[in-house]
Write a structure and sequence with these properties.
Layout lengths: L1 E9 L2 E9 L3 E6 L5 H9 L6 E6 L2 E6 L12 E4 L11 H5 L5 H6 L1 H9 L15 H14 L4 E5 L7 H18 L3 E5 L2 H7 L2 E6 L2 E6 L1 H5 L16 E10 L4 E7 L2 E6 L8 E5 L5 E4 L10 E13 L2 E8 L2 E8 H7 L6 E6 L5 E6 L1
Parallel strand pairs: 3-8, 3-9, 6-7, 7-8
Antiparallel strand pairs: 1-2, 1-4, 4-5, 9-10, 11-12, 11-14, 12-13, 14-20, 15-19, 16-17, 16-19, 17-18
């Protein structure tokens, strides 16, 4: 459980956020400059805000003005940033055990569990300078977890990594959440990370909390919460698995009304639900179905909305019983002569359907 009420002003920007969450993993989402990292820094105590009331797991860490204010090293929180901040001349073991008492923590049952979950055993005797970006971030996470924090604070922990390494670290964080049970508060600009990790989602805009709730509920309403311009928030779908075609590498998902979506093969059992993300710009609109295409999904659609966002248009479609959004230019809308209620064909490549999580 975390409760926070933070007001912090600098320059022409004011952060004024109050929230309460039982987590156990809370995601903080918003556009660049919305105040995400400032909020995290205020909770960590790195930023000394004039108004800051922070309570984690029943322990008051700050109650300003006039009350308690614990310095960062007394809060029992572990902050992991984009930069792993390792000592390059030390081995992984040296980095993990640098803090007083960390050597005993590493050899404890809990320490061995952390090493196992983060796959650190093969790295223990290697110098940090020769580790890959993903390996360095795993070491930083291990160092943070060995401190037995009340809460792990993560500031865009995978944003500096390329796609494959980011997915690897994200999978390890998910395993750490499940296996180690450490509460987390993490900043991200990626909807896929929120859906994979977060139980609760805070959306910030211009220093204010504009939405809070389960990620799939909050992020499926991008215009309502002021984040429609963020890549990846436009189509977050929870669909039922219909069947698998392992040879073709495809899992078919139910869009309703007899329509199916061909997605990359996954291990989710038939009749379970999976979360799928489709970038709005990855959907192609046609007046009629093409004769041949590499896209596995050629889907009948109906236009349900046309919303202008600057020089682009967010086109609402109904695919079977599933609403989606497509991002196109104003010129494309004019050329296709898009109108409400008209039929279209939507082309979606299988590889444009990103599996985010699997649920019973």
């Amino acid at each position: 459980m975390i409760t926070a009420d933070v007001t912090h002003r600098f320059g022409g920007f004011t952060l004024d956020v109050s929230f309460e969450s039982s987590g156990p993993v809370v995601g903080v989402f918003g556009r660049s400059g919305s105040g995400k990292s400032t909020l995290l820094s205020a909770i960590a105590g790195v930023v000394r805000s004039p108004v800051a009331r922070v309570n984690v797991d029943g322990v008051t860490l700050a109650d300003r003005p006039g009350g308690v204010w614990l310095p960062p090293d007394k809060r029992g929180l572990a902050l992991v940033t984009q930069d792993p901040l390792l000592f390059p001349h030390l081995t992984t073991r040296g980095n993990l055990t640098y803090a007083p008492g960390a050597d005993a923590a590493l050899t404890s049952d809990r320490g061995r569990q952390i090493v196992d979950v983060l796959r650190l055993e093969p790295l223990l005797d290697r110098n940090a300078a020769v580790l890959s970006g993903g390996e360095q971030q795993r070491v930083a996470l291990g160092r943070a977890l060995l401190s037995e924090p009340r809460m792990l604070l993560l500031d865009e922990p995978v944003s500096a990594l390329d796609g494959e390494l980011a997915r690897e670290v994200l999978a390890l964080l998910l395993e750490a959440k499940t296996t180690l049970g450490v509460p987390m508060l993490f900043v991200t600009h990626r909807a896929s990370e929120l859906l994979a990790l977060a139980d609760d989602c805070l959306v910030l805009d211009d220093g204010k909390l504009v939405a809070q709730g389960p990620p799939i509920d909050v992020l499926s309403r991008p215009r309502d919460v002021g984040v429609a311009k963020l890549v990846g928030v436009d189509n977050l779908l929870r669909l039922r698995v219909v069947e698998h075609d392992e040879r073709a590498g495809i899992t078919h998902l139910d869009l309703g009304a007899g329509l199916r979506l061909a997605s990359p093969f996954c291990a989710a059992p038939v009749d379970t639900l999976v979360d799928i993300g489709v970038y709005a710009e990855d959907v192609i609109l046609c007046r009629r179905a093409p004769d041949a295409t590499s896209a596995r999904n050629t889907l009948a659609a109906t236009v349900t909305s046309l919303d202008a966002i600057d020089r682009e248009v967010l086109v609402g479609l109904e695919l079977g019983a599933t609403p989606i959004r497509v991002r196109v230019t104003a010129g494309a809308v004019a050329e296709l002569d898009l109108r409400l209620g008209e039929p279209l064909v939507a082309l979606i490549k299988t590889t444009a359907c990103h599996h985010l999580s699997e649920r019973r």
